[in-house]
# Entry
Amino acid sequence: MGDEGGFPPPGYAVGVVGLGLMGGSLAASLRQAWPQARILGVSRRAETLDWAVGRGWIDDGGTSLPEVLAGVQLAVLATPVRTIIEQVKEADGLLPPGAVLTDVGSTKLEVVAAMSRTGRPDQCVGGHPMCGRESRGLEAAEPDLYRGATWVLCPSRATAPGTVQVVSSLARAVGARPLILDAAEHDAIVARTSHLPYLAASALARAVAEAVPERDLRALSAGGYRDTTRLAASDVSMMLDILLTNRAHVLAGLQALQQQLGKIEQALASGDEPGLAVLLEGARQSRRVP
Amino acid sequence: MGDEGGFPPPGYAVGVVGLGLMGGSLAASLRQAWPQARILGVSRRAETLDWAVGRGWIDDGGTSLPEVLAGVQLAVLATPVRTIIEQVKEADGLLPPGAVLTDVGSTKLEVVAAMSRTGRPDQCVGGHPMCGRESRGLEAAEPDLYRGATWVLCPSRATAPGTVQVVSSLARAVGARPLILDAAEHDAIVARTSHLPYLAASALARAVAEAVPERDLRALSAGGYRDTTRLAASDVSMMLDILLTNRAHVLAGLQALQQQLGKIEQALASGDEPGLAVLLEGARQSRRVP
# Structure
């Protein structure tokens, strides 16, 4: 991996903007996969940079985009989605000619729209590696985070094939599988597979907590409660960015979920055991895990 | 463990009715913890008995209650809840004087009510070990299933203290922590901590499947979808028994869950970011895992 027809060439510089879970893990993994490249980081906090340099996850970095982006051939925005949308504009004015711009944000339509409005739409492609966890920050980062994950690439109509190729190489270098998908289609799908599970977990955690005192909850819950509510522990500010940049699809998902709960409620309330069995068996069979 | 003041005495016989995940694991664990006791199994299928004898998990057994229960001092019903309710009556006519009757069913009010209607209400106590998994059957059984789990005991007003003591010893012998709780209170709590998570997972799996083709679901879902829907893979016939013997509490939970989803939907639809943040942060903080 990392040596697809000699890509990247010696001295190739990658800038990772945001050294949280996603950015930190990406830098750490690239540092191993692309020894011939320079890996640079951007973090608002100088201590974060020092820590990442100390661990050998980046070669160098800076606390703002201007300090770093002028010298890179590939920039990866790994901040919360609404910050990414702002940084796409800022990066456009800083990157050298020919440099590729991508991101790892969880919603894509608004990011790709912002990329299309830059002066370099051919050199931009949206990205979304389908991995992550509730823990946040560089402390949670690890080089293997991307291994085996699907890394969605969302080109706009203006994106050049060479741009997609560069970011596909990046994805493969860290062990992920690139998958090209329309941004609108991506957002519709992840609204159901990712954002709706988060809201279901959160609503469930609230519905449990309102009726069960904390002491009983600790003693009288098992792995089922723990797993079903796990996503409710996600970072709220990150999730707000995601939900508010994918509002229509998430709202449709919330309505669908309430409809399904209503069907189950109706069958149970009326004692319709065969009907309830059909609903639950359908759920059991429709579940598909990778 | 297993030697609390010499309990059980040599030759003490325990009958485990139903050799699925719960009963099989219990027999296997007891066989190790109580070497001085005889562990007998009841399974409708002779091959299941042979398999369990072959693995050394039971000493002997039979395919019906009459074959086994006349010779035991402790009977544990480990079948689906509505079968347990029937078997409580049947066991009452078979057990020798003084023998203790308990169960491991997931709902308790109807089971304990059935126990109260027997001729030996003082020798009966309901039980619910808070463990398990979606996999079912003896193949999924393992001696460590109960280790660290809370084992709820629900006495009726007629239950003798010595009866609770016997079943507490059983629970401790397999590594669980006995916890005495009123059956109605138990059912209200597990409706939220266990049955509602199952229905949330099932409704979510349906709401995802109705909008996302199977191929996309496999490629574009990550650990969040997998964990949040995990319980939807549970055995439906077992869950029907649980839901239909805890209907009122489960219905109240379903309404509470839909209310919480409605609040989230309302905040997102109106773009009320601070309100949405309060709901999601509340969920994050209310989640309590053992």
Remarks:
- The longest helix of chain A spans residues 183-209.
- Strands of chain A lie at 13-17, 38-42, 60-62, 74-77, 100-103, 124-129, 150-154, 177-180.
- Chain A has twelve helices and eight strands.
